[in-house]
What we know:
This protein has helices at residues 5-8, 378-384; strands at 17-18, 27-28, 31-37, 44-51, 57-66, 75-84, 90-95, 107-109, 115-117, 122-126, 133-137, 144-147, 153-157, 164-169, 173-176, 182-184, 198-199, 202-208, 215-220, 228-232, 237-243, 249-255, 276-282, 288-293, 301-304, 312-315, 317-318, 327-329, 335-343, 351-359, 365-374, 398-400, 406-410, 414-418. A hairpin with a 7-residue loop joins β19 (215-220) and β20. By secondary structure, the protein is mostly beta strands. It contains two helices and 34 strands. 3% of the residues lie in helices and 43% in strands. The model is unreliable at 1-29 and 380-391 (pLDDT under 50). Strands 1, 27, 28, 29, 30 and 31 form a six-stranded mixed sheet that branches. The protein has a five-stranded antiparallel sheet with strand order 2-3-34-33-32, with no helix packed on it. Strands 16, 17, 18, 19 and 20 form a five-stranded antiparallel sheet that branches. It is globular.
Amino acid sequence: MRVQLALLTQLPTVWTVVGTAATPSQESGSVRLIRTYGEGKTSSYSELLDLSNDGGLLLSNEVRFGRCPNGKPYCRFQKLVVHDTKTGQRIGELPSQAGGMEHFLPARFGSGRTVLPLGAEGRIEWNPFTGEIRTVPLKRRGSRFCLMDDGRVLALSEGKSRDQLNLISEQAGSTTLSNPDSVHGRGPERDFDCRGWSSGQSFLFQGSESDRRLRLYWISASPNVPYRACWTQPDRYLYGYAVSPDGTLAVAITGSDDGDKDEVDTWNVISPKQRIFLNVIQAGTCENLLRTELQFPHEPKVRATLLAPKNKYYANALLSDALAKRVAVSPDNTMVAISYGIRTGGVYSSAVGYFGIYSLLDGRRLATLKGDVLRNGPWQAIRYGEWYATRWAPAEAIFFSPDSKTVYASSFRVWQWDISGLR
Length: 423
């Protein structure tokens, strides 16, 4: 295990809160906001998709909503955009086909600086510097897809009795992999994060067999290698997990069942009675290296409406669907970052996206990065012209730079922070 223990023990205890002012000069303690990408509106927002291997390029998905080419009132238009991370300069953009209604997802950087979107006709190879485009025909079979850096596609087919993982390539077509009965890919297709779950030619998936106990399994990209049970989760809830870039560590964010019988309404939020844990696992042997409770700086408060004082709820509480939706380990194996959301009030209140950075040595919280605000409710709809529910918090993908000194995170905008002061 290549954990740099000497460096880990030198990490300072730092508590930092960064606000949402989108000015490159913003600084707070040991974290500095470098820039944001995108407009940051629900009607026009940006999603972080990938970071090039050298950290010099950022791939995002710019989405806007508007009238359809056929005259219908509501369509989702998509455009892939590549930026230079040093200057923020836009290098190139690739609009989706069919008037923007045919979407590119997933998409990522290949082994070089070529972008590999997956379209309806197959895998696309796009050079953002020259604009050159090449389409490789691939048959998309499955419900969720993830691109590997060599252009092969990992596809999950979810069945009533059994799930199946397949590997799709230009040369071999579709190859069936060995996997447990149930394979859990969390959330929508963009959260089928095979890059964050990979170690070499193997992938760490949550799944279960006939005993229905949830575990993490190593699944090989080679069809002749059987899957291997790695780690049985010690708690009731597994919110998210990731593998370190060098493949030596895995981290899992879990939650106890302490808050399951809370007398306060916990619809779509996590009871403050529930304990959230960071579990660090040795990837090869699946040995537990660390288990510690995570701390959050937000203090949930019990509230009630004026018209129904007996109907109590938690304000300023963690959103259950957003906790650890994405997890990332720094390349130097010293930090872990998780995305999460906070519901500011009741069911129809706003939600705020956050990204917490913790030490992998002892689970200390090193920094709190605040993203965008998702406004909700009738008053916000009148004021901002936006209607949406707080089931989705604006906190998505996270990437560390190769030198572990910068964090990129996806909210309604893509945020870029300098975290070199945490070292």
